[in-house]
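Progress against Task 2.4 (sequence-to-structure conversion) is shown through the following example record, which the project officer requested during the mid-term review.
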Amino acid sequence: MDVSEIIIPGDTPGTEWRLPVLRFKGRDPKAPTIYIQAALHAGELPGTALLHILCERLRQAESQGGITGRITIVPQANPIGAAQSHFGDLQGRFDLGSRTNFNRDFPLISIADRATLIEELDDYPATDRLKRQLLHMALGADLVLDLHCDDESLQYAYIDEAFWPEAADLAAALDMEAVLLSDGESSAFEEAVGFAWKYEIPGERRSMLPGKLSVTVELRGKRDVDPALAKRDADGLWRFLTSRGIVSDEPVAPAAFAGPAVPLDNVEIIRAPEGGAVLFHRAIGDRVVEGERLATIITRPGQVDGSIDVQAPQDGLILTRTSDRLVRRRGDLMKIVCAGPSKTSREAGTLES
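Structure tokens generated for the chain above:
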């Protein structure tokens, strides 16, 4: 394993950021190559724990000549966000300087222009330098996994329709409970990777990308940083690497992916009609029916008519839930995966900022 660091100068004198990059060379130049990163939202650490355990197994395989395809791993992809604390709370999702989500505003370029990402980097602020370096590394691989987590959540993934159903082997290997099929219309990291491949010839869009994969994996919730879960997920990712011919091992065929795979239009985002204390009646993983009570919002404690009930707009599976118990008006409460589209219109791109 080769360990290097990318130095990102800070935007004020005397500061800089260090981005460790772990590389396994691989012995077969024809084998698929993979890039994996975690903690782009710096407070989302299940992926970091997974990669720590996976790298132990990869080092052992490397010593036995078992690494077939080149592997690049960035286990903590956002040192800038990891240093942002406000009154003791980590603020690793949004850059405090620009107020931009660290997983948005990645350059949308053709793969033919990959080299331009790291040209004249001194012209860019630190956050943009970080994004350009990450995207440049990812575009050197065939398969790209961006490991995130939600708040309280089942295991699921955002997968561009261009990679489905080929990516069902990843969903099965990681025992995902749902797949959300995205339209590739945002500037999030995994969609910027897909954009570069789709527009290999500028102005001409490819609808299918065999042999390629760019995925956002949501490894349950923020508090699911646990040795048993990390090992379980590392084992699942190892099965995927084996099935794709990136590592050498006895192949173990995972069970077929059995969860729902639905377009983003089929996700109901349940929002609080008023602010207040939230009492949940249903949990992640529950299946609900239209009209069922999901939560009660206590808007005026102790007063007559001081609470509001929130019902399910249609049948579905509760995929995520907020961990907050004091919510603001229009704050997200849940995401429910449904068989039919939501009646609420959705803009192109990702579900949330």
